[in-house]
Each structure stands twice: as structure tokens, then as C-alpha cells.
Amino acid sequence: MGSFSRLAAQGAQLWLDTSSVNAAIVETYKSALDKYRSNHGSKGKIKNKRYDESNGLSEGPSGVYMRSPISLAKALKNPAELEGMQNCHLRDAAALAQFWCWLEEEIHNNVELTEVDVADKLLEFRAKKEGFLDTSFDTISGSGANGAIIHYRAKIGSCSVVDPNKLFLLDSGAQYIDGTTDITRTVHFGEPTAREKECFTRVLKGHIALDQAVFPENTPGFVLDAFARSSLWKIGLDYRHGTGHGVGAALNVHEGPQSISYRYGNTTPLQKGMIVSNEPGYYEDHAFGIRIENLLHVQEINTPNRYGGIEYLGFEKLTFFPIQVCN
């Protein structure tokens, strides 16, 4: 914080993206600027809608409070970044295939495994793959009712044993030298109930609907959110989180400015080169949770018509691991 105060004391003007910068930094800088103006006798305002929350620019230094252009530049992946994302997802899918085969065999052999045991074993398989650096976030490994806790974190000593007669939700990802992965799969090792089958099917229908969506350029992500919820809405069900977030290329697993969400405030259009997650779900408190997640790359679609003379966009899957069929 001291460095921001010193910059303001020197009359430096800083660009601060208040949607992402720590609020304490913003307030520290503003307070120091006020002191600078007071000491230098600055007063009055010059109208300029680009500056300041009050749509004015004070005489002398003033913070620029606008969205950073860097976030959009990062979101638009170049060919090398996209190639790296595709390659690391192939290696990640191989690790997941090895892991799920191991887990299914252990469960069918009545081996008792905790949620932490499962997460640790997945890390072990991923760590053997070329270019692996670390997990991209803390693995969410939830059996039965724990799967209904959206941001559940299994801990040694308090976590559950993976129950073969309950749904098991595993949300995980990895950082590789050439890309970032994020994938969720929900499986059952035995015979799911009719209720679980119906909910899983409706989540999957929403996942597929978004996966296959085609939309005109300049469409913000919130327009597509209903695609993923429609099947659940038809029977009065829903989920309390966004459907998709931006993902960095060997960077943050949650990256802006784009999203696919019911939050209408984010009007950032989805553009070619962006990467987003597709992760609808359904969570029944004290019973089970379902989420199905792939990563998608926004690309141009060669539609037979170009109404309005504009481009139409759609998605290409980056995630290669299959989804369990719930018979």
C-alpha cells in the first residue's frame, strides 16, 4: 500500500480497474491523491466522461477508473496459446482415463477410499504427464451429499468415504507449461435412482445445448446462459452459479472479462479466441450434486447465411474426456 501512497504523493496518475483491483488499493490511492491536491491547492473539475466515478478530472493528477485493456487482450488467445491448450488437454484426458479406470476398479473391489484419497490419486496420475506444473485449483471431490456443496473442499479427518451407491462429483484441473485445464464429471458406480437419472439427464441436455449453440458476433455471454438451464427450468429446477467462466492459457483458471452467467451486468461479447467453461449443474441439498464441465474455444461458424452481414460464432471443445452414460 505504501508504494501507491508514494506514487500519489509524487502526483502520479494511475489506471485502476476497479472491477478487479483490491478495493483497499483504490481507497489508499484516492486518499493520498486528496492529500496531494490539498497540499498543492488543486480544485475544480474538467469534464471528461472517461475519468473518475464523478465523470470529471480534477486539476492535477487523478486516477483513471476504467476496465483494463490487458484483460481483453489476454482473453483473445493467439494460435500458439490455442495449440498449447489443445495439446495439454489431450495429455490431461490421458491422465483422467487412467485415473477413472483405477478408481472404478478399486470401488468394484470394495476398496475403501476417502474423498481426499481420490483427489490425491488424481494428482499422482496428472503429475506424470509432460509439462505438468500443479493443480489449477483445489480439487472438489464430493460423494453423495457433499457433492451438493458447490465449493466443497474435502479435508483429512472430516471428509467422507466414496460411497459406490451414491453420485460422486469430481471437479478438478491442472496447470501445464502450455495450458490450463478444468473439468467436472459426475458418476455413479452402481444404479442411480430415477430422480438422479432425470436430474443428470437434464443437466446433460443443458450442457449439450450450450455446446452446440451458434450465435451472432457481439453476443454477450449472459444471452447464452438460458440454453444451459432450459431443460431444468421445464420442471422447476435450477442452479445457483454461473454457467461458464473465462479460462487463461497457462494462467488463471478463472479469467475475465467474459462469462456465461445469469448476471446481466457483464455485457462483454464472446469473441473468437476466447475460452469459456460449460458447466451447468443441479444440487439437491443433503442428497447429491451434479455438474458436467468442459472447456470450449469460441470460433467462427461457417453458416449458410450471414444475416446482417456479420459473423456467426460457436464453440469447439477443448476437453476430450467422455461423459458417463446414465442408463
TrEMBL record:
Gene Ontology cellular component list: cytoplasm
Alphabetically ordered keywords of this record: Hydrolase, Manganese, Metal-binding
InterPro entries linked: Creatinase/aminopeptidase-like, Pept_M24, Pept_M24B, X-Pro_aminopeptidase_P
Protein name in UniProt: Peptidase M24 domain-containing protein
SUPFAM superfamilies, A to Z: Creatinase/aminopeptidase
Compositionally biased region (Basic residues): 39-48
Any Pfam family the entry gives: Peptidase_M24
Residues covered by region (Disordered): 39-62
Keyword Nucleotide-binding in annotation: no
Signal peptide: none
Cofactor: Mn(2+)
